[in-house]
Design a protein that fits this description.
The complex is a heterodimer of chains A (147) and B (298).
Chain A: H1 2-16, H2 26-33, E1 41-42, E2 48-52, E3 56-63, E4 67-75, E5 83-88, E6 93-96, E7 106-111, E8 115-122, E9 135-146
Antiparallel strand pairs in A: 1-9, 2-9, 3-8, 4-7, 4-9, 5-6, 5-8
Chain B: H1 7-28, H2 35-39, E1 51-54, H3 59-68, H4 90-109, H5 113-129, H6 138-146, H7 151-171, H8 175-200, H9 203-224, H10 230-246, E2 250-260, E3 267-276, H11 279-297
Antiparallel strand pairs in B: 2-3
Helix pairs in contact in B: 3-4, 3-8, 4-5, 4-7, 4-8, 7-8, 8-9, 8-11, 9-10, 10-11
């Protein structure tokens, strides 16, 4: 009985424990993400989290008239092509990377009037998971530069 | 013999798996950012619904906008560097690291070399007191000295230092200190803007002050999602009082529309919001923010 219980435990753990290097270190973001915000100046805040396939996260942001902005979604490869949308407060979609040419992981833009937007990040569910759920670091970087 | 996968068995296995998983989390130790905690989100490992983060414009961004709006430099707007010795608690150090960060941004935007070095040293002093001294240590000071005549590089160095400090605090499970640094910088930026407005009556600066209504909402969201502690609760109360004034400002939202310039390929988001603020509202905001700022720097 004990052996069977242990076997069940092992199978259950293998099926439900997420895998992947779910490390979200300062070093990862600084090395892999920060250089890609250039030539924009970072807003000085770290917005990172470990996410699982199928999860969604949102970042509330303000953008001011008179500056150019870059929103960059930087993630670990294990998560695949991360999807992101930029929406207004009424959740009207202004940009969706999956609809853009080349499925980019950043968007450069400016605003005519100062506005509050939502960046929604979604982690795709891989076609074949074998019960293994990938997890990894996702960082939303925001940079600005003078027009 | 076939084992029955009963509800009880499932429950037991779930608990055991979660325990195993939790141990896995802890095993990552210092290597993993405690990001779920820093944002006040529920664990990203267990929740499939949306997690919400808040981001606040940096003091560099705010002071860049003030300069574009026609603001001029006056060192009397800034927190006196002599005050740095007053701050003994971790929360006052954090708030004033934000305040001096905004002052450092202001001096740097206006290329006030000598003042920039003084405010950098204040930031270094407070960062040392918070255990994040390396961020503003000799290497950063040398980089700043070497780039004093290159404003853009200087701003990148300051931004990088504050980003590293924020990341360090979050990585070391100090989300409250991180939030207070951000809040201190925001309050100082708004205070400087109100001082400029009172002296110059510059319409663009006044508009920038009104637009902070949106940032204030996000700042309150950030602080509410941060584990509660006395300094955060006190600041939240003051900021919510400020919000009651901002709530009176008309902010008409229109559906934004995007257009891309075929030559430059730059996308512009039009529509959005129109905002109007009257003199009385400006005065109320100025008075409120002055009180909040006085409580921070005292």
């Amino acid at each position: 009985m004990k052996l069977k219980q242990l076997l069940f435990l092992a199978i259950f753990a293998a099926l439900f424990i997420p895998t992947g290097h779910a490390q979200c270190t300062k070093a990862f973001v600084k090395k892999q993400c920060m250089p890609r915000i250039s030539p924009f100046t970072s807003n000085g805040q770290l917005n990172s989290t470990v996410m699982l396939a199928g999860q969604t996260a949102e970042l509330m942001l303000n953008f001011s008239a008179g500056l150019n902005y870059r929103v960059l979604i930087c993630s670990q490869d294990v998560l695949g092509k991360v999807e992101f949308k930029l929406m207004d407060k009424e959740r009207n979609v202004l940009f969706q990377n999956t609809s853009a040419k080349g499925n980019p992981d950043f968007w450069d833009f400016n605003v005519k009037t100062t506005q509050q937007f939502i960046v929604e990040v979604s982690i795709p569910v891989p076609g074949k998971t074998n019960g293994i759920v990938p997890s990894g670091c996702v960082s939303v970087m925001v940079g600005f530069k003078d027009k | 013999m076939v084992a029955k996968f009963t509800g009880r068995t499932f429950f037991s296995l779930t608990i055991v798996s979660l325990l195993i998983f939790s141990c896995g989390q802890e095993k990552e130790g210092d290597e993993t950012l405690p990001v779920e905690d820093t944002t006040g989100m529920a664990s990203a490992k267990t929740v499939k619904t949306a997690n919400v983060f808040y981001s606040i414009p940096s003091p560099i961004e705010t002071t860049t906008l003030l300069k574009k709006a026609g603001a001029t430099y006056d060192k009397d707007y800034l927190n006196d560097i002599k005050n740095v010795s007053r701050y003994s608690s971790a929360s006052s150090k954090a708030l004033n690291l934000g305040v001096y960060g905004a002052d450092l941004s202001f001096t740097s935007i206006f290329e006030q070399t000598q003042e920039s070095m003084l405010y950098l040293k204040c930031s270094s002093n407070l960062a040392n007191g918070l255990g994040i001294g390396d961020v503003f240590g000799p290497a950063t000071i040398s980089r700043v000295e070497a780039n004093m005549k290159n404003r853009d590089s200087l701003l990148d160095i300051i931004s990088d230092a504050y980003w590293t400090a924020d990341a360090y605090l979050k990585e070391n499970d100090r989300p409250g200190i991180s939030a207070l640094v951000i809040a201190g910088g925001w309050v100082e930026g708004l205070y400087i803007a109100t001082r400029i407005a009172s002296v110059t009556n510059n319409d663009d600066v006044i508009t920038r002050i009104a637009e902070q209504k949106l940032s204030l909402e996000n700042l309150i969201g950030l602080l509410e999602n941060t584990p509660s502690e006395e300094a955060i609760a006190k600041l939240l109360k003051e900021l919510k009082s400020l919000k009651t004034v901002y709530d009176k400002i008309d902010f008409n939202h229109q559906k934004p529309e995007t257009s891309t310039d075929v030559t430059t390929h730059v996308t512009t988001i039009g529509g959005g919001s129109s905002i109007s603020i009257n003199k009385e509202q400006l005065k109320d905001i100025s008075n409120k923010v002055e009180v909040i700022r006085s409580n921070i720097i005292k």
